[in-house]
UniProtKB/TrEMBL annotation:
It comes from the Eukaryota. This is Calcium channel, voltage dependent, alpha2/delta subunit 3. Belongs to the calcium channel subunit alpha-2/delta family. SMART domains: VWA (SM00327). GO terms for molecular function: voltage-gated calcium channel activity. It comes from Dicentrarchus labrax. GO terms for cellular component: voltage-gated calcium channel complex. Residues 167-349 form the VWFA domain. InterPro entries: Ca_channel_alpha-2/delta, VWA_N, VWF_A, vWFA_dom_sf.
Length: 448
């Protein structure tokens, strides 16, 4: 059984690798084009929508959709893909349109894949810029508030494929200067950072002023796995933070470095990348003595400062910290700026994989496919995904373009089980590296 499952994994991994290789030839021939004022694409929300005059809306247009048995009678288009852009992003932003333009070469790859292997279902590309190209084309419907909260960069398949496993300590400034809106933005920033962590990652959150406060006191001096339960637990504690006193950043940094070092020595963490996320409204000094003691010259821990507020009086110190410790500096002025600024650190964390040409295939644990759920009942799926990088000669750092993937029904895995060889009381099952059940005869989806 182990051999059969492994063979199935390798087979699908090759399909994803083929998808990337075939598309890369198209991409590198057209990615230099940046000006196309007349270019439009099929927006998943706007297709087949008309205005008051009965005309097709911009980025909409007529898009043929037909029910298809293979997709549980959902109305799809087997010739074209559609593009979904998060509600909080401008769908004609130049970066979005640019990415959509050169990724249009994926249409042919998607169609060819499906013709070659009719068992495939959803194929997609999640861009580092935020847009999501999905095949076959299907119309997306916003909720009652006109919002679609889906952002491909927050999905587990994207996070696992885009970065290596990492240990992260989040430092939150709760000194008196962080009162009001700044503290609200800081809470949202921490929550967004948690969204970018997956089951292979470990983390803790520390608030500091003149003292160090672990957001969860029971987890003093350690890190925990970034699964959904732990992340939700920490989010609940964020509301209990309040600002007062002065901020002693040096002691907080020393605590964070100590935790990361001690945890790494035990071998219980990711044993890979390490980072400190610093959420603050400023730093009065550079704390080079702390970095010299704990992080130099190896610089194993990256520093990612997030400056909260519009003032830039102490921005230079934070920028220096980021540059001196292989990190990235971001400034967050409003709540609307949070998500895009938080996402930028993923590019930095993915650089080692780019440089080493590591196109690792990742598999997610089982989940319920909501797209098929409406008409066919709960359907358990897994996703196989792989990162896509640009390694053009003009840069020696590499760029994460996004993640490509496809969904696989668990029923397809179960079909490979040689039941006649297991015996009358035998059965097969599979679990992920994190202990989550992937397939099991008694596994039932819990829909809430």
């Amino acid at each position: 059984m182990d051999i059969l499952i492994l063979y199935y994994y390798i087979d699908y991994s090759k399909k994803v690798q083929f998808l990337i290789n075939l598309w890369a030839c198209e991409y590198f021939n057209i990615c230099c084009i940046h000006s196309f004022p007349q270019y439009e694409y099929f927006n998943a929300v706007l297709i087949n929508e008309v205005d008051e005059m009965g005309n097709n809306v911009e980025l909409g247009g007529e898009f043929l959709l037909e029910p298809n048995d293979h997709f549980n009678n959902l109305s799809v288009n087997l010739s074209l893909s559609v593009v979904q852009v998060p509600t909080n992003m401008y769908n004609k932003d130049p970066d979005i349109v640019n990415g959509v333009y050169w990724s249009e070469a994926l249409n042919k790859v998607f169609v060819d894949n499906f013709e070659r292997d009719p068992t495939l279902i959803w194929q997609y590309f999640g861009s580092a810029k935020g847009f999501f190209r999905q095949y076959p084309g299907v119309k997306w419907h916003p909720d009652e508030h006109g919002v679609i909260g889906f952002d491909c960069r927050n999905r587990k398949w994207y996070i696992q494929a885009a970065t290596s496993p990492k240990d992260v300590v989040i430092l939150v400034d709760v000194s008196g200067s962080m009162k009001g809106l700044r503290l609200t933005i800081a809470r949202q920033t921490v929550s967004s950072i948690l969204d970018t962590l997956g089951d292979d990652d470990f983390f803790n959150v520390i608030a500091y002023n003149q003292e160090i406060h672990y957001v969860e006191p029971c987890l003093n001096g350690t890190l925990v796995r970034a699964d959904r339960t732990n992340k939700d637990h920490f989010r609940e504690h964020l509301d209990k933070l309040f600002a007062k006193g002065i901020g002693l950043l040096g002691e907080a940094l020393a605590e964070a470095f100590t935790i990361l070092n001690d945890f790494n020595q035990t071998g219980r963490g990711s044993v890979c990348s390490q980072a400190i996320m610093l959420v603050t409204d400023g730093a009065t000094e550079m704390y080079d003595d702390v970095f010299e003691k704990y992080n130099w010259p190896e610089r194993k821990v990256r520093i990612f400062p997030y400056l909260i507020g519009r003032e830039s009086a102490f921005a230079d110190n934070l920028k220096w910290m980021a540059c001196a410790n292989k990190g990235y500096f971001s400034q967050i002025s409003t709540l609307a700026d949070v998500q895009e600024n938080v996402m930028r650190y993923l590019h930095v964390m993915s650089r080692p994989k780019v440089i080493d040409h590591e196109h690792d295939t990742v598999w997610t644990e089982a989940y319920v496919d909501s797209a098929l759920n409406e008409k066919a009942g709960p359907s358990l799926m897994t996703t196989v995904a792989m990162p896509v990088f640009s390694t053009k000669n003009e840069t020696n750092q590499g760029i994460l373009l996004g993640v490509v993937g496809t969904d696989i029904p668990l029923q397809e895995l179960m079909k490979l089980i040689p039941k006649h060889m297991l015996g009358i009381h035998g059965y097969a099952f599979a679990i992920t590296n994190n202990g989550y059940i992937l397939t099991h005869p008694d596994l039932r989806p819990l829909v809430t």
